[in-house]
Amino acid sequence: MTINFSGSGRSVSRWLCRLILFLCFGAYAAAGQESIVTFYMHGSLWTTGLPRSKHGVFNGNVFDGSQELFAFHDGLFDHNNRFITLRIPAGRHIFGATYGKNPQANETIQIDLNPDEHYFVRAQGETFGIGSSVVKFGRLDLMYCADALTDLGGNATPLKDKALSKYTRTRRTDMVVDEASLPSCK
After folding, report:
1. Residues forming beta bridges with residue 87, ordered by sequence position
2. 167: burial class by Cβ within 10 Å (0-12, 13-18, 19+)?
3. Which of 52, 76, 57, 23 is nearest to 152 (CA)?
4. Cα angle, residue 67 at apex, residues 64 and 72 outer, rounded to 5°
5. HSE on the CB side for 94, CA within 13 Å?
6. Which pTM was predicted?
7. Is the dihedral of CA 45, 122, 102, 54 positive or negative?
8. Interval 41-81: pLDDT, tens
9. Are 142 and 111 in contact, with CB atoms under 8 Å apart?
10. Cβ-based neighbour number of residue 126 at 10 Å
11. Using alpha carbons only, how large is the chain's radius of gyration in Å?
12. Please, are residues 6 and 90 in contact by the beta-carbon 8 Å criterion?
């Protein structure tokens, strides 16, 4: 059965066929529109928590906008040189590292992710103040792959699943890249 739109000469079946083709090719194009981001934590265990330290170990939460992705804390003790690799849609993102629930502006980094590219983001802790007035912040730095591998010195450990936020855990199959060791530079 063919129904013509008022004088347009296009049948519903032709219109539906075009819609289906558009949706199929649109979904195919969108599938390749993701980036790979390896977040890693590397800091100095000696300066963590000391006033004016800018390179301490970070054991807080990492966000994409207001959405918590994971925490760099997955056990009883804090560990240095931890990492996780995620598939994230290409486009502009504001990632944040905080010890709280909402990253402040000084705890964020804006990155324009290009499709099919791999990014390395280092998390470190910063401490300001003296005595009982110590305030801790998270900091994220976009790093070159070679610098990330140098930071970690070949002894990085992937985060455990319990470090994933509820949001990421429910999307684990689509988001988390399972790796036993750091990805290599290409």
Report:
1. 36
2. middle
3. 57
4. 70
5. 11
6. 0.76
7. positive
8. 886 555 555 555 565 677 889 999 999 999 987 665 556 78
9. yes
10. 19
11. 22
12. no
Comparing CA positions, the residue from 147, 140, 131, 142 lying closest to residue 52 is 131
Q: Which two tokens stand for residue 106?
A: 């000084």
Beta partners for 63?
68, 96
Here the tokens at position 143 are: 């790093």
Residue with tokens 């931890």: 82
Q: State pLDDT tens for residues 80-130.
A: 788 999 999 999 999 999 988 999 898 999 999 999 999 999 998 776 666
Output the average pLDDT for the chain: 78
Which tens digits make up the pLDDT trace of 8-21? 444 544 444 444 43
Between CA 144 and CA 119 the distance in angstroms is 8
| Whole-number percent of the chain with pLDDT over 70 | 67
Residue among 95, 116, 110, 94 nearest 33 (CA): 116
